[in-house]
Every structure is written in structure tokens, then in C-alpha cells.
Design brief:
The protein has 2 domains: 118 residues, no CATH class; 263 residues, Fucose-specific lectin (Neuraminidase, 6 Propeller), CATH 2.120.10. It is built from 7 helices and 24 strands.
């Protein structure tokens, strides 16, 4: 059914907390609209996604229009028809008349214009990070991201049907979402070890590790790699055709399995007592850094230096309320992201000699983040927002 599929939303680039702030008011102000649409067969989550998409569209584009509120409302409505016709199509499929759809959307646009707050814009530009953008979808897990060349991003998440869903940035635009099948009980994880190659992992219904890959021309079938995992896995690659996969076992310790280019190893227990999914990243040949949340809710680290595994160490800095995400912008550089007590995205770096303090990047997120660097100091971070859409923030 339509409401069970991903809802594609384009050109939405604004902080999720501003969308959520206005949506909180819309939930109260337009309760009758939610009830009316529900009587027509439109589930509340679908109506919420459409209204949230309209709000985000207005926040992204309102500065491109002049005139009174009424004039801007009409111009935005006309362009919304052209840019996001899926919103209208969804409701027409429930036999809601065009004039009624127009009236509802006009009221949402007008309400948003009257409640925009821009008092933080200048400060946000000074941080070096973009505003958040809403990439749509209905996610039931945290996202995963990989990059196989400069200015290329492939993002994965579990959908409402528990299958793996995929969206990608090709250097100029975002694709639509596609369903890659499978049945996952956790978030996926993804990595690329070479041009046009992607390996994706998740935990299947049997709690084993499952694997699917893109070879440059097609997606493979899913394969079962065994094990018994209790959280989403993590994966890193430090050279061509090398994969190192990590998961949390039933004993709460970190387990490791690797592909050496010709065969998979057995699982090995790397110890620790962990309370979140792990994150893994490689900044050079034969180097892997692993992060997870410990029993004290702090960030913990373990690394492979080419010869041996280090002991687990508490990185400190305070508590986190999610598993971490890890990326690297260069040799002996690490960038870590997590969620804090306020459900906002936080960020810290290893400079090569010390850890920085956590920095607040705002946003209201409802999942572990995912992070990647595809070149230089560029960082792209993704998470699920309050509206269950995929949200994206980046540092140029």
C-alpha cells in the first residue's frame, strides 16, 4: 500500500528542530485536518509526513519569495505542486478532491510562514556546519552510509517492511529511495573498499550476520555469515577486498569476523562490556578503531595497530545516549558523533594528540547517527529525525 512505502521528499534543507517546533503547533492547531484525513483512510503517520514535508519545503524556500503572506502562500503552493507532486498524488489516491487538498496545503503553508523563527541563522553559519536537510523516507532504524568516490554517498536504512532501503547522492542530486529486500531486525552498516563497490551488513531474523553487496553492476543476494548478535553490526575496510565486521554478542562483548580477500574467518571475542551498537573506522592500512558505549554510558575505544588489539579505554567526556558513529578525515584523525541527553547530535575529534570536548550540533535525532568523510575535511552525518525521515547535516 502507498502508506507503507517511503515518501520521497526533495529540496528540504532546514534544521529539523525548527520543522519539529512548527509541527508541534500544527498537531494542536490542525487536529481537525488529521481527523478528516484519517476518516478518508489516510493514516496519521502519512498525514504527518506530508505536513512535515510541506513545512520543511516552506522553511527551505520562503526567502525566495516576496510580497504579503497571502501572496507568498499562493506562490509556494504553486511551486509545491511542481516540485513535490507526490504529496498531492498521495491524497488524491484516497479520493480527496483537489480543491480540498489545495485548501489544506494552503493553510499549512500560511501557518508556517507566520511562525518562522530566524533568530539563529547567522550563528549557525559561523559553525562551519550546514543546516539540516530532510531526505524523506519512513525509517525504522538508524541509517548507515558509505562512499566509493569523491562526492558520492550511499545511505541505507530499514523501512517499514523491515527490508533494506537505499538512497544515494550522485554528485548533483539525491535519488529516490529503492527497496533492496531482506528482513532485518537491526540497523544496517555499510562500507566501500573500492570504486563502485559497496558491502552492507545487518542482523537477520535468526540473529545472525547477513551480507549483501554491490559489485558495480548488480546487487547480490543476501548471505548468512552466522553468529548471534544483539545489536546492529559495524564494518571497516583498510585495503581493497578486506572487510572487518564487528558485533555485540550475547555476553555483551565485542565480536569480530573478517574477510581476507578469499574467505571469511571464524568469529573472535574481543572482550569489553558494551551497551550500544559499535562503530568502526580505518584511517590507514592495517589500522582499525572501534567505539561503543560502555556500562558507565561513556564512549569507549579499542584499536588494532597492525600487530595487536589495544585494551578497551574510556575516552571520557560525559555520557552519551546512543551508540557512536565514527569517520576519519586523515591519517591519525578521528571524528566521533553521538546523541546527548537532549537528543541532540554531538561531535568530537581526535586531533592526532588529544580528544576535543563534545560540540553540540543541535538537531533532534531519534537514532544512532551515521558519518562518513569522502575527502579533505568534508564530513556528512545522517540520523533519523522525530518525523522518522532521514536527516542530513554536513561540514564542507
Amino acid at each position: 500500500m502507498i502508506e507503507d512505502n517511503f515518501i520521497e521528499i526533495s529540496e528540504l534543507r532546514r534544521r529539523p528542530q525548527d520543522t519539529n517546533r512548527i509541527m508541534d503547533m500544527i498537531n494542536q492547531e490542525f487536529r481537525d485536518y488529521f481527523d478528516e484525513l484519517q476518516r478518508s483512510g489516510v493514516r496519521r503517520v502519512v498525514a504527518y509526513s506530508i505536513f512535515s514535508g510541506i513545512v520543511s519545503y516552506v522553511l527551505r524556500n520562503e526567502r525566495n519569495y516576496t510580497g504579503s503572506i497571502d501572496e507568498k502562500t499562493q506562490d509556494l503552493l504553486n511551486d509545491l505542486w511542481e516540485d513535490n507532486g507526490v504529496f498531492f498524488s498521495l491524497l488524491r489516491n484516497f479520493r480527496i478532491p483537489n480543491n480540498r487538498i489545495n485548501q489544506i496545503f494552503r493553510d499549512i503553508i500560511s501557518f508556517t510562514l507566520r511562525n518562522i523563527r530566524n533568530d539563529y541563522d547567522d550563528d549557525e553559519l559561523e559553525t562551519g556546519w550546514s543546516n539540516w536537510e530532510d531526505l524523506g523516507g519512513i525509517l525504522t532504524s538508524a541509517p548507515a552510509v558509505s562512499s566509493w568516490e569523491e562526492n558520492r554517498l550511499d545511505v541505507f536504512a530499514r523501512g517499514q517492511n523491515r527490508a533494506l532501503w537505499h538512497i544515494w547522492w550522485d554528485g548533483s542530486r539525491w535519488s529516490d529511495w529503492e527497496d533492496l529486500g531482506g528482513i532485518l531486525i537491526t540497523s544496517p552498516t555499510a562500507v566501500s573498499w573500492g570504486p563502485n563497490r559497496i558491502d552492507v551488513f545487518g542482523v537477520g531474523e535468526n540473529q545472525a550476520l547477513w551480507h549483501k553487496w554491490w559489485d558495480g553492476s548488480r546487487w547480490s543476494n543476501w548471505e548468512d555469515l552466522g553468529g548471534v548478535l544483539t545489536y546492529a553490526p559495524a564494518v571497516a575496510s583498510w585495503q581493497n577486498n578486506r572487510l572487518d565486521v564487528f558485533g555485540i554478542g550475547q555476553n555483551q562483548s565485542l565480536w569480530h569476523k573478517w574477510w581476507d580477500g578469499s574467505e571469511w574467518s571464524d568469529w573472535e571475542d574481543l572482550g569489553g562490556v558494551l551497551t550500544s551498537p559499535p562503530a568502526a573506522v580505518s584511517w590507514g592500512p592495517d589500522r582499525i578503531d572501534i567505539f561503543a558505549r560502555g556500562r558507565n554510558q561513556s564512549l569507549w575505544q579499542k584499536y588494532w595497530d597492525g600487530v595487536r588489539w589495544s585494551p578497551w579505554s574510556d575516552v571520557g567526556g560525559g555520557t552519551i545516549t546512543s551508540g557512536p558513529a565514527a569517520a576519519s578525515t586523515g591519517r591519525n584523525r578521528l571524528e566521533i558523533f553521538a546523541r546527548d541527553d537532549d537528543n541532540e547530535l554531538i561531535f568530537r575529534s581526535w586531533t592526532g594528540s588529544r580528544w576535543t570536548s563534545w560540540e553540540d550540533l543541535d538537531g533532534i535525532i531519534t537514532s544512532e547517527p551515521a558519518a562518513i568523510s569522502w575527502g579533505g575535511d568534508r564530513l556528512d552525518v545522517f540520523a533519523r529525525g522525530q518525523n522518522n525521515h532521514l536527516w542530513h547535516i554536513w561540514r564542507p
